[in-house]
Amino acid sequence: MPPPRVSHRIESAIVRGVTLERQSEMDSGLKHRLPDLAGPILNHVIFWAATLLVVSIVAFAGYYYFDQQGSTPADQEALQIRLSQYEQVVRDDPNNITNRLALGDAYLSLERYNDAVAQYEAALVINDQSVLARVGLGRAKQGVGDFAGASENFQSVIDQSKEADISGELVQSAYYYLGSIALDQQKPDEAIEYLKQATKFERSDADAWYLLGTAYVQSGQLDEAADALAQAVLFVPDFTEAYEQLALVYDQKGANGEALYARGMAAYSKGEFEDAADQLQAAVNASPTLAEAYAGLGLVRETQGQGEAAVAAYQQALHLNPENFNARSGLARLSQPETAASPEAELPAGHPGGQAEEGSGQGVTP
Predict the structure, then answer these.
(1) Number of alpha carbons in the 13 Å side-chain half-sphere of residue 301
(2) Torsion, Cα of 35, 41, 46, 49 (10° steps)
(3) Could you give the count of Cα atoms lying within 13 Å of 19 in the half-sphere of its Cβ?
(4) At what angle do helices 188-201 and 168-184 cross, to 10 degrees?
(5) How far apart are the C-alpha atoms of 224 and 182, rounded to whole Å?
(6) Burial degree of 329 (CB within 10 A; 0-12, 13-18, 19+)
(7) CA dihedral angle for residue 214, residue 217, residue 223, residue 224, rounded to 10 degrees
(8) Alpha-carbon dihedral angle through residues 327, 259, 246, 355, given to the nearest 10 degrees
(9) pTM
């Protein structure tokens, strides 16, 4: 089963998968300074660069954990200390673009959008061709409601990609956020075009497929909406919002069995297994040829420790659709001896059955 969807799309460059691009920009920024430095000054720069990189990884990992699990006062204090370290690095070397970008990412993660805007704008003063700064500034401006400013920066990334070798993940992000903005502005046709491009760059981006399905719903294209939402849950089988949207689409299409299936999977994704089993059983009764419903029922029975019932459901799903991924992977798991002894031992990543502070008050100015 695919890895679990991040419940809130984390916007840091590290989580967006552009660590190598950030590292390249870090190296470039250091190289043009090194010839002019020597002795203690050079050692100071190297020390702070290394410290920043370590703190970056720890801070973002910590923030993601706190965001998902909830944070205690002690957690918030630790997070504030880490943010203070970022701010000190920028004070010590304000013309280092790497420092500015990392601090901007930290403010963005903490939803301190105005502070993030200041850091990304300062980074662009240092290097007006920085794609990372453009993406970050677009996200920060989107956060403060400046959709025109955000769109301008995202479009700049796309325009630059036509003339320079830019990471596809960054370009995909630009299309994704342009689609998100268009959707917020009730411009579904425009959103569809942007989000279709986003899914071309990254076929497994469940969030992009979900927004594309939502845009199709707004435009009244129900068949296309169902297809897009089905792609979202194909990559992330516990994507609650996508299943709920899918159920509404099937309701409008008059597809009763499919709607029951979607509601059953929404219940499954929330850990409501009895309700999920009832809905999915009703779905296969209403639509006996619906392979997805049998596969979903198999997932529920597997979670409940009902191995034989799960195998039967998976086998029926494969009889109807030999390519059904959830059924194939479910049977593979249940064929392992240790799984039979412990139903939760080999549950897929993100499987519901396996689940049992802001920074300092003043931002650093350019």
Answers:
(1) 23
(2) -100
(3) 8
(4) 160
(5) 18
(6) middle
(7) -50
(8) -50
(9) 0.72
DSSP reduced 3-state for 357: coil
Q: Which domains does the chain have, with CATH numbers?
A: 1-125 (no CATH), 238-353 (1.25.40.10)
CA dist 206 and 193 (Å) reads 17
User: Which of 285, 262, 252, 255 minimizes the C-alpha distance to 270?
Assistant: 262
What's the one-letter identity of residue 224?
Answer: E
Residue with tokens 């903490």: 110
SS3 content of the chain, % helix, strand, coil (to 5): 75, 0, 25
Rounded distance between C-alpha atoms, residue 182 and residue 151, angstroms: 9
Nearest to 265 by CA among 231, 226, 294, 222: 294
pLDDT tens-place string over residues 146-189: 999 999 999 999 999 988 888 889 999 999 999 999 999 999 99
Q: How many CB atoms lie within 10 A of CB 339?
A: 17
Distance between CA atoms of residues 246 and 228, nearest Å = 9
Residue 21: other Cβ atoms inside 10 A? 17
What is the Cα–Cα distance from 233 to 179, expressed in whole angstroms? 19
C-beta of residue 330 within 8 angstroms of C-beta of residue 295: yes
Q: What is the pLDDT of residues 182-204, one digit of tens each?
A: 999 999 999 999 999 999 999 99
Q: Which DSSP category does 314 fall into?
A: H
Place of tokens 């279709």: 196
Query: CA–CA distance from 115 to each of 104, 140, 200, 349 (Å)?
Result: 7, 9, 33, 36
Summarize pLDDT for 25-37 with one digit per residue, the tens.
Answer: 433 443 333 344 4
Tokens of residue 100, six digits: 């500015």
What is the enclosing helix (H) or strand (E) of 68?
helix 39-69
